[in-house]
């Protein structure tokens, strides 16, 4: 088990600020949290070294990249177990359409977030990955109509 990293109020505020914009200059972060620039840089380096901050990423608008449809797919395996579950997880992790995935508890075994440009692309995905997999018992698809909270850790509400 990984050990917990002790965070103070400055660390928590820095984490929240870089969740909202990881390109914010250290000078601006320092002003916002009330620390020196060197203290902010030192804290950010420690947070990254301790894997509190695991990645600096860009949140992309899928509609602008040709992935106008977002599906959430619940997948149930025929025989849950480490080997078939791990094999399925490795395979779907290689698919560019799968932008997030979770192994979950309950009736279903996985939740996939699938982003595609059309229903034809989604149909091809399910035929190749779900219909052809003998280990998959079944799946349910939920089509996202509109976002309510921004994707990513900042969880910005999108509705006024």
From TrEMBL:
Entries under SMART domains matching the protein: HTH_ASNC
Keyword terms: DNA-binding, Transcription, Transcription regulation
Domain HTH asnC-type stretches: 7-68
The name this protein goes by in its record: Lrp/AsnC family transcriptional regulator
InterPro entries: AsnC-type_HTH_dom, Dimeric_a/b-barrel, Tscrpt_reg_AsnC-like, Tscrpt_reg_AsnC/Lrp_C, WH-like_DNA-bd_sf, WH_DNA-bd_sf
């Amino acid at each position: 088990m990984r050990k917990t990293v002790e965070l103070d109020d400055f660390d928590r505020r820095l984490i929240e600020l870089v969740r909202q914009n990881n390109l914010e200059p250290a000078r601006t972060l320092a002003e916002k949290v009330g620390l020196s620039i060197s203290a902010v840089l030192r804290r950010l380096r420690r947070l990254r070294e301790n894997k509190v901050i695991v990645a600096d990423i860009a949140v992309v608008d899928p509609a602008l990249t040709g992935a106008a449809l977002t599906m959430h797919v619940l997948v149930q395996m025929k025989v849950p177990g480490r080997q078939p579950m791990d094999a399925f997880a490795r395979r779907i992790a290689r698919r560019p359409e799968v932008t997030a995935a979770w192994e979950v508890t309950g009736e279903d075994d996985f939740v996939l977030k699938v982003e595609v440009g059309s229903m034809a692309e989604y149909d091809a995905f399910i035929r190749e990955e779900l219909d052809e997999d003998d280990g998959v018992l079944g799946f349910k698809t939920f089509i996202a109509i509109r976002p309510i909270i921004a994707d990513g850790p900042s969880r910005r509400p999108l509705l006024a």
